[in-house]
Amino acid sequence: MMKVCSLFSGSSGNSIFIANDDTKILVDAGLSAKRIIEALCSIDEDPMELSAVLISHEHSDHTKGAGILSRKLGIPLYANEETWLSMESDLGKINPENKMYFDMNSEFEIGSIKIKAFAIPHDAANPVGFNLFSKDRKFTVATDIGHITKKLLGCFEMSDMILLESNHDVDMLKIGRYPWPLKKRILSEKGHLSNEMAGKVIEYMACRGTRKFLLGHLSQENNFPELAYQTVYNVLCGNPEIRSTEIMLDIAHRDSVGRVIEV
């Protein structure tokens, strides 16, 4: 069994807590170390027991607190080579023993949790999502995704739970106050995933056995939790193969700690 808790999820900062009986990991540390430590304490987790922080890509909403956390708690940071090259100057001094690399599409282990990083389409150096395995359980983190491919869907297969980006409502984005270059970036194939596309992906995965979903990385300007939830829920209800009562669908909020979910 694994425990999963979204500490924060959104363009203002991302951090996801994953644990099994003897290993505790953060995926990303995009808020201040102080806020992340407070969030961990709020779910009765000891920050000193963290085994590592996995970094998906170098954008500040995924790395802001990573350097301070590593120095304060003495924990390693894991990223691929291109991400290290892009983020290292912003992290401050990292103990060489805590500077860890992983190879794309190759499994590695942190404690008793196995991890596989997979490429995602986003405008960063070499951005990734993560599959995390504990015994027969699989949890997938996939945010900051410009578009969905067959290869990505293959990475999602057999997941017991998926945290999937549901960043924006397309109509809200188009008529919103963002400047056109930013709108174009978000809508591009290396931007962010819309509510509608998230619904289609979750429908596809629900038909293949995944039963737990978190909608994450919601935009503050171009989305709101009720709309993201209802958009995906409507897609699920429109498929007679899916019994919505068997599906756990929840929101990973941008500024509040979520509930701890067993996977």
Q: Could you give the count of β-strands?
A: 14
Helix percentage range: 25-40%
Summing up helix and strand content along with how strands pair, one would put the structural category as alpha/beta
Q: Kindly provide the radius of gyration, computed on alpha-carbon positions and rounded to a whole number of angstroms.
A: 17 Å
Q: Given the C-alpha coordinates, what overall shape results?
A: globular
Q: Order of SSEs, N→C?
A: EEEHEHHEHEEEEEHEHHHEHEE
Largest sheet features: 7 strands, mixed
Report on the architecture of this protein.
This protein has 263 residues and is of the alpha/beta class. The protein has nine helices and 14 strands. It has helices spanning 33-42, 60-63, 66-73, 81-91, 150-156, 170-175, 180-187, 195-206, 225-237; strands spanning 3-8, 15-19, 24-27, 52-54, 77-79, 99-101, 108-110, 113-119, 128-134, 137-142, 161-165, 212-216, 248-251, 261-262. The strands form two sheets. The protein has a seven-stranded mixed β-sheet with strand order 6-5-4-3-2-1-14. It has a seven-stranded mixed β-sheet with strand order 7-8-9-10-11-12-13. A hairpin with a 2-residue loop joins strand 7 (108-110) and strand 8. Helix 8 crosses helix 9. It is globular and about 50 Å long. The mean pLDDT is 96.
